[in-house]
Design a protein that fits this description.
With 391 residues, the chain is α/β, with parallel strands linked by helices. The chain has 2 domains: 5-57 and 303-390, Aspartate Aminotransferase, domain 1; 71-299, 3-Layer(aba) Sandwich (Aspartate Aminotransferase, domain 2). Helices cover 37% and strands 19% of the residues. It is built from 12 helices and 17 strands. It has helices at 5-13, 46-49, 58-70, 81-94, 105-124, 143-148, 173-179, 203-216, 286-299, 304-320, 344-353, 375-390; strands at 25-29, 32-35, 40-43, 98-102, 130-134, 165-168, 184-189, 192-193, 199-200, 219-223, 247-250, 261-265, 325-331, 334-339, 356-357, 359-361, 364-367. Strands 4-12-11-10-7-5-6 form a 7-stranded mixed beta sheet, sandwiched between helices. Strands 1-2-3-15 form a 4-stranded mixed beta sheet. Strands 13-14-17-16 form a 4-stranded antiparallel beta sheet. Strand 8 and strand 9 (199-200) form a beta hairpin. It binds pyridoxal-5'-phosphate (PLP). The site of pyridoxal-5'-phosphate has 14 residues, from helix 5.
C-alpha cells in the first residue's frame, strides 16, 4: 500500500508482535488521520477505542498541553491536584468509592485481581482465591491477565501460567452457579466481550452473577476496559444490565488516547490495597489525568451520551442495510457485524486501502468510532464499506 522506508526501518527495530497494515500514520484531526504521503483515512476504530474524542480534540489537547507545561510527573510518593480532580470526577461519574491508576487495561485488571484476592484473604484467610472468568473473554497480555483470559489460544508458550482461574460458559446460569464454592473470591466478566467478537452477555446471566455473588460475599469484577467511558451509550455498560459490580476496570478511551488504566472499587473493598501492597511508577501520571479529566468533562456534559445513542442507532441501521451483513451485534458505538460470505480480515485491509480504518474481532468486522463522530462521517465511511462489501 504505502511506499515507505519507515516500514523497513520500523520492522528492523521493533519486535514483530503485531500484524500491521502497511500504513504509516503521521497526523490526525477530528475523525481523520493522514499518512506520510498525505493520504487521509476516516477512522472507525479510534486506535481500538482509545481516541474517544477523535484525533487531537481541541479541549483535550489544550488540557494536556497545559499540564505538560505545568508538571509532567511526580512519582506516587507525592500528591497532585490533577490526579485528585480526575479521581473525584471518575468516582462520582461511575459511582465508586476509590480508584487506583495504572497505565493500561491489563494493569487495571491485574489490580482488580490482586484486590479481590486480598479482600478474601483478609476476611477468610488462605484458599479462597479462585476467580471465575468466562470462556471467550479477554483480560490482557500480562501473564496474570492472560491466565484470566478464557481462550485456550492465549494459553501457549509462556508456561507456567498463573493458577486460580476457572472458566465458565457465558450465559449458562446453572453452570456458573455450580462453580461458586468456598474457594472462589470473585467473578470477572465483560458485559460485551470485545476481543472475543463483540458478544453481548444476557441480562439474566449478568444479574444472576451479581445476585449470587452478593449472597456469598464473592466480589464481582466488571472489565469495562473496552465497553466503558461512554462507549456503549451509558458511562458504564453495567448500567444497562442494572447491576453495580464491586469493582470496575477502565482503560482504552478513558484518557482520550493517553496511557491509563483505572481500577474502581466500591465501599466494600475500596481500602483493601494499603500502602506497599500495590503500585505503578507511571500510574496516575498528571498528563494522562489531565487528558482523562477533559474526556470526562465532555462525556458527562448534558446531552453527550444521548447523542452517542442517537448516532449508534443510525450507525447500526446503516450497517444493517448492507445486503452482505448477516447481523449486527454490540451496544452503543461498540458494534460488530457478521458477514454472509466475505472474510473480515480481507475487508478490513481493503477498507484501509480505500481510506477507512476499521477493526476485526474474531470473524466479525468491528467498529469503535470516536464518540463524537458526525453523521456525514458515518455516511462517508458507510459508502466505502458498503461498496467493498457489495463487490
Ligand atoms: C476487555 C479488555 N480487557 C483488557 C484489555 C487489555 O487492555 P490493554 O491492552 O490496555 O492492556 C483489553 C484490550 O483489548 C480489553 O478489550
Amino acid at each position: 500500500m504505502q511506499n515507505s522506508t519507515t516500514i523497513e526501518q520500523f520492522n528492523a527495530h521493533v519486535m514483530g508482535t503485531y500484524g500491521r497494515y502497511p500504513v504509516v500514520l503521521e497526523n490526525g484531526a477530528g475523525r481523520t488521520a493522514s499518512d506520510e504521503d498525505g493520504k487521509t483515512y476516516l477512522d472507525f476504530g479510534s486506535g481500538i477505542g482509545t481516541n474517544s474524542l477523535g484525533y487531537c480534540n481541541e479541549n483535550w489537547a489544550e488540557a494536556v498541553c497545559a499540564q505538560v507545561r505545568k508538571i509532567q510527573h511526580t512519582s506516587n510518593y507525592y500528591y497532585t491536584k490533577v490526579q485528585a480532580d480526575f479521581a473525584e470526577k471518575l468516582c462520582e461519574t461511575a459511582g465508586y468509592a476509590k480508584a487506583f491508576f495504572g497505565n493500561s487495561g491489563a494493569e487495571a485488571n491485574e489490580c482488580a485481581i490482586k484486590l479481590a484476592r486480598k479482600y478474601s484473604f483478609d476476611k477468610y484467610g488462605k484458599g479462597r482465591h479462585v476467580i471465575i472468568t468466562l470462556n471467550n473473554s479477554f483480560h490482557g497480555r500480562t501473564l496474570c491477565t492472560l491466565s484470566a483470559t478464557g481462550q485456550e489460544s492465549f494459553h501457549n508458550y509462556f508456561f507456567p501460567f498463573v493458577e486460580g482461574f476457572v472458566n465458565a460458559e457465558p450465559n449458562d446460569i446453572p453452570a456458573l452457579l455450580g462453580l461458586l464454592d468456598d474457594t472462589v473470591c470473585a467473578v470477572m466478566f465483560e458485559c460485551v466481550q470485545g476481543e472475543g467478537g463483540v458478544v453481548q452477555l444476557d441480562e439474566a446471566f449478568v444479574k444472576a452473577i451479581a445476585d449470587e455473588c452478593a449472597k456469598r460475599d464473592i466480589l464481582t469484577i466488571c472489565d469495562e476496559v473496552q465497553t466503558g467511558c461512554g462507549r456503549t451509550g451509558t458511562f458504564l455498560a453495567s448500567e444497562q444490565y442494572g447491576i453495580k459490580p464491586n469493582i470496575t476496570t477502565l482503560a482504552k478511551g478513558l484518557a482520550g488516547g493517553l496511557p491509563i488504566g483505572a481500577c474502581l472499587a466500591d465501599e466494600t473493598c475500596a481500602d483493601v490495597l494499603s500502602a506497599g501492597t500495590h503500585g505503578s511508577t507511571f500510574g496516575g501520571n498528571p498528563i494522562s489525568c489531565a487528558g482523562g479529566l477533559a474526556v470526562l468533562n465532555t462525556v458527562t456534559a448534558d446531552g453527550f451520551l444521548a447523542e452517542v445513542n442517537a448516532k449508534a442507532a443510525y450507525f447500526r441501521r446503516k450497517l444493517g442495510e448492507i445486503p452482505e451483513v448477516a447481523g449486527v451485534d454490540g451496544l452503543g458505538l461498540m458494534l460488530g457485524i457478521r458477514l454472509k460470505t466475505k472474510k473480515a480480515g480481507e475487508i478490513c485491509k481493503a477498507c484501509a486501502e480505500n481510506g477507512l480504518l476499521i477493526l476485526t474481532a474474531k470473524e466479525k468486522l468491528r467498529f469503535l468510532p470516536p464518540l463524537n463522530i458526525a453523521y456525514d462521517e458515518i455516511d462517508a465511511g458507510m459508502e466505502i464499506l458498503s461498496a467493498l462489501l457489495t463487490q
